[in-house]
# Entry
Amino acid sequence: MSNKQQVAVLGGGSFGTAIANIVAANGHQTFLWMRDQENAARCQQSRENERYLPGVRLTEGLEVTADLQRAAAATDLVFVSIPSHSFRSVARQLRPYLKSDAMVVSTAKGIEPEGFTLMSDILLQELPEHDIGVLSGPNFAKEIVAMQHTGSVIASESERVCHAVQQILRSETFRVYANTDRGGVELGGALKNIYAIICGMAAAMGAGKNTQAMLLTRSLAEMGRFAGEMGANPMTFLGLAGVGDLILTCTSDLSRNYRVGYQLGQGEPLDAVVSGLGQVAEGVNTLHQVKQKADELGVYMPLVSGLYSILFERRAVADVVRELMLGEQSNDVEYRGA
Ligand SMILES: NC(=O)C1=CN([C@@H]2O[C@H](COP(=O)(O)OP(=O)(O)OC[C@H]3O[C@@H](n4cnc5c(N)ncnc54)[C@H](O)[C@@H]3O)[C@@H](O)[C@H]2O)C=CC1
Ligand SMILES: O=C(CO)COP(=O)(O)O
# Structure
């Protein structure tokens, strides 16, 4: 691989813009694709993505375009930063334009309802000739562009993809670790959104640090148990894409999922909270999908079931909490290792 690559980032939201800015700052020829022509032209001209990352200057040389063919045609690596609800349709649009050896990496943290499909599995289905991967970790877009020191994970069975992503994104403030457990890394990023909603809700209701520590730890146990059933390596959950991202999103109001939970904890109705957000909070849909899958597989997920019954079965929070606290006594550590 030569030093300078051509890279496209699909999705002009906060995360796509942050990733494109890093890549362009590293001197790679970089395109940021957004679907709306007018928005693309405005961002390209003003050098700012005013809606999603106001006040952040787009790196010199980063080209914002609504022309997918222009963005993708000669590209070595494509990052797909599209929310899960539209991920497949964009992967499909991309297919005719890719050169044969192009690599494609998902940065989305959600699950497609049909068939409980992970984003990287959508890439495998829609772009079967290409090497693919997943980028996930404790990575608030706003902190990346503020040059906070940040760690992330590239997960792929392909060494070529891991190496390329590490080289293309590495900088003094962004460090990328590799993992071959694609499914585990991807489940970590998707599942933690559910627990961020729970932690936000608990914070709004006055939970102290004891409660927060218990929630975080039991969330980790629950997500590891579920992912283990799905074939992931439980050790992945001790890494940045597991416990790292869980801590980040469950303790900060920079997380949209945490903010959704916080507003719910203040008594606001779910529909109003979600529509007022103006950005994607993947956790609400992921909750539906994980609850259904856990029931199907017979995986014990009391926190998921509790949140589900509060949000979608109108159960009172106090009743659910009492039931969780007084439920059958169980063991602390249950990891069986890799
Ligand atoms: N914002 C963050 O800090 C992080 C976000 N992520 C994940 O990245 C994914 C994207 O998130 P954000 O950029 O934050 O979302 P966002 O809500 O900031 O932006 C979403 C972008 O996707 C575009 N989009 C939606 N449907 C589209 C379609 N059919 N065709 C083309 N573009 C479409 C929207 O126009 C918008 O520009 C999510 O899965 C999220 O969980 C991952 C790590 C960090
Ligand atoms: O995934 C994220 C940080 O790693 C962003 O979380 P939210 O989608 O909850 O804002």
Q: What stands out?
A: The chain has a mean pLDDT of 96.
